[in-house]
Amino acid sequence: MKTVRPFYKLSVLSRYENKIIHGISQRGGGVSEGCYQSLNLGLHVGDETARVIENRKRFCGELGIKLSRTVCCEQVHGTNVRIVDEKDMGRGTLTLEDIIENTDGLITNKKNIALMLFFADCTPVFIYDPRNDAIGLSHAGWRGTLGNIAAKTLRAMHDAYGTKPSDCIAAIGPCIGGCCYEIGDEVAEKFNDIFTSMHLPSTAFSRILFRDEGKYHLSLYEANSALLVQEGISSENISSEHCCTSCNVDEFYSYRAEKGKTGRHAAVICLK
Ligand SMILES: [Zn+2]
């Protein structure tokens, strides 16, 4: 049997390995088949439940986390953020029936509770506040990025734990890159309005939204990074790695590259 592939890590968070566990799953070493092969962690995509649970156990096992201490949310491309504590442990891990509904961002300051969200091209945004020992994880596709779910997660951490953006570390996980992410004119216009009002240098602006062969392209990595900086996180404290899920479909699930018939990888963060 193939073992679970080493999961993907982000260097700004790896510096705090004595305080937090984090990782993003990759496709190898699971039991799912067909378009889900092989470590599909999404329960909502039509794969067999028993296989997904086995895959989740394998991935959490590799990270040294118990699935029963993990929390999942519904992820509806919205901007609701929820505080998570002991009573939420296990929600959404074995069934969708007890999942935290209508939520795209989770925060906690409790130790040994893992936040786990699922992705196929959308952007995982991790936030760690080392001063107050608090974490946040959010799901930002184009709608969530437009709604600034990353900043809303940060503000929820401020309200709940006194988090200051200037203390925070942020990491943006693998997501579809500007190289592969064509968007329609209407969506491009919405992003153009937001980033024009931020008065970014033109070089920074052109990394977020640009035209290639007559089509608009959007970088969710660059967009979320700019929004986090605007919110007060220092650019040195934001991850610099940028991995495109669509270019790396052997390693990650890509909704765009696989035309919607695919599984989900997971992003996890947990305070030790
Ligand atoms: Zn790409």
TrEMBL record:
Entries under Pfam families matching the protein: Cu-oxidase_4 (PF02578)
Catalytic reaction equation(s): adenosine + phosphate = alpha-D-ribose 1-phosphate + adenine; inosine + phosphate = alpha-D-ribose 1-phosphate + hypoxanthine; S-methyl-5'-thioadenosine + phosphate = 5-(methylsulfanyl)-alpha-D-ribose 1-phosphate + adenine; adenosine + H2O + H(+) = inosine + NH4(+)
Keywords: Hydrolase, Metal-binding, Transferase, Zinc
Keyword ATP-binding annotated: no
CDD domains: YfiH
Keyword Ribonucleoprotein attached: no
Database matches in NCBIfam families: peptidoglycan editing factor PgeF
Family of this protein: Belongs to the purine nucleoside phosphorylase YfiH/LACC1 family.
Function: Purine nucleoside enzyme that catalyzes the phosphorolysis of adenosine and inosine nucleosides, yielding D-ribose 1-phosphate and the respective free bases, adenine and hypoxanthine. Also catalyzes the phosphorolysis of S-methyl-5'-thioadenosine into adenine and S-methyl-5-thio-alpha-D-ribose 1-phosphate. Also has adenosine deaminase activity.
Listed name of the protein: Purine nucleoside phosphorylase
Species whose genome carries this gene: Pectinatus haikarae
Organism placement in taxonomy: Bacteria, Bacillati, Bacillota, Negativicutes, Selenomonadales
